Amino acid sequence: MTGYPEGDTICAEATPRGRGGISVVRISGPDAWGIVSLLFDRKLPGPGMLKFGRIIVSDPDPIPLDDVVVAYFANPHSYTGEDVVEISAHGSPVIVAELLEALYKGGARPAEPGEFTLRAYLNGRIDLTQAEAVSDLISASSKEAAQAAMKQMDGGIGKACEEIAALVERLLIFAELELDFVEEDVELTSREEKLSIVDRAIGNAERMVAGYQASRRLREGVKVVLTGAPNVGKSSIYNKLIGEERAIVHSTPGTTRDVLSAKTVIGGMEFEFFDTAGLRGNPDEIEDEGIARALIAAKNADIIVEIESIDFPGFSSASLEIPRLKITNKCDLGCETTDGMAVSAKTGSGFYDLKKELLNIVKEDNKLTDGTINRERHYRALARGLSGLRRGRQGLIDNLPDEMIAEEWRDALAALDELTGKKKLANLLVSIFGQFCIGK
Ligand SMILES: Nc1nc2c(ncn2[C@@H]2O[C@H](COP(=O)(O)OP(=O)(O)OP(=O)(O)O)[C@@H](O)[C@H]2O)c(=O)[nH]1
Ligand SMILES: [Mg+2]
């Protein structure tokens, strides 16, 4: 299926490489129990139990390697759905290396990245979206992203897809039944009833898509682009927001040319800030590469911060339909006359309110519901499903033959199956699980 052998016994360190309190080595497969029994100086614990004991390896004479705690999870009640043994050893790379060596000698092979989770998926313990959630949880860089991943691990997307699939299956059954009676030209189910079912399916799918942008922001960070005329202090504000002197600040207008970006966490949310070249009104210079790049960055922003300063005027960055925040910088020089938000990159005043306002803008449209999709992959599959449903709906209205309509329902079902991973596509699995760390 994925190029990895299946059904053999795999092992890997499940904790990060290095020195620490403990290191956990995980073994999964039909021989997990047998291989570890040969190394452990006591009888292995029963399923779901822990036991303290000693690992003895042969070198070639038996030598005690480490005192460990062994946990045993019997199939199918384990992470992978296979027999799993976890050995918690002292956190030393030397011990882990020796232990793994002994396990290889016993017949286990090194696990590939994500292979434990892949097995959990192949054994039907989790669907594909739950496997992706495991990876998202591990790589989450904010509290909110971690919570969203946890929610997805419960299988919300899979359940929402199943509900839609159940509706589409009913439509498919109606269509096929009527095909059987095509000669008699009878209508077994009214068109109104079919339309109401397909409308429910479309409504559900649209709700899953609705939160997509918000959940993508949670995963990838909120993109905030700082724009404004030259010299208003964009780079100074950028440095202040990320807490580092990354961008060059200078009194000469037009200092910044390239788009710079850096990530930082504010109030549990990850933000990615972009510093850009100053926008000039002079049409001769509008083609300037830096300005062009600044405008592209603004187009891809989740939020645009439009900056002006006491000594330099504002410059509106086109009329994009993106939430924007107007601020005035250099308030240490006096901002009494401004009505917008006032900050000073020099003194740091106003930054607390600025960050609070950014968070408010994000939280406004960040209401995630169960089953909200969050990956481009989900989005594409669901969009395909939705267009199948819409074409089928139109077919019903246009009184197209049942055969043609059934084809649309099948397309929609195939897209849903791809989303949850019911349909197992080898190259898709390689690309998803290849991004995992080893040992997960
Ligand atoms: N007094 C005062 N000066 C500031 C403040 N912020 C920036 N400056 C000064 O304004 C000048 C321009 O600052 P930058 O941060 O380079 O401005 P910019 O908008 O990035 O400029 P370009 O990259 O040229 O478009 C520098 O001399 C800064 O020291 C502030 O809050 N108060
Ligand atoms: Mg600059």
Features:
440 residues, alpha/beta, Gyrase A, domain 2, Four Helix Bundle (Hemerythrin (Met), subunit A), Rossmann fold, six-stranded mixed sheet, 14 helices, 43% helix, flat, binds guanosine-5'-triphosphate, binds magnesium ion
Task: Describe the overall structure.
- By secondary structure, the chain is of the alpha/beta class.
- It folds into 3 domains: 10-127, Gyrase A, domain 2, CATH 3.30.1360; 134-211 and 371-421, tRNA modification GTPase MnmE domain 2 (Four Helix Bundle (Hemerythrin (Met), subunit A), Up-down Bundle); 218-364, Rossmann fold (3-Layer(aba) Sandwich), CATH 3.40.50.300.
- It has helices spanning 32-39, 93-106, 115-122, 128-139, 143-153, 156-180, 191-210, 212-220, 234-242, 289-299, 351-364, 376-397, 402-420, 426-433, and strands spanning 10-13, 20-28, 49-58, 62-73, 84-91, 109-110, 222-228, 260-266, 269-275, 303-309, 324-329, 341-342.
- The protein has a 6-stranded mixed β-sheet. Strands 8-9-7-10-11-12 form a 6-stranded mixed β-sheet, with helices on both faces.
- Strand 3 (49-58) and strand 4 form a beta hairpin.
- Helix 7 (191-210) packs antiparallel against helix 12 (376-397).
- The radius of gyration is 29 Å and the shape is flat.
- Bound molecules: guanosine-5'-triphosphate and magnesium ion.
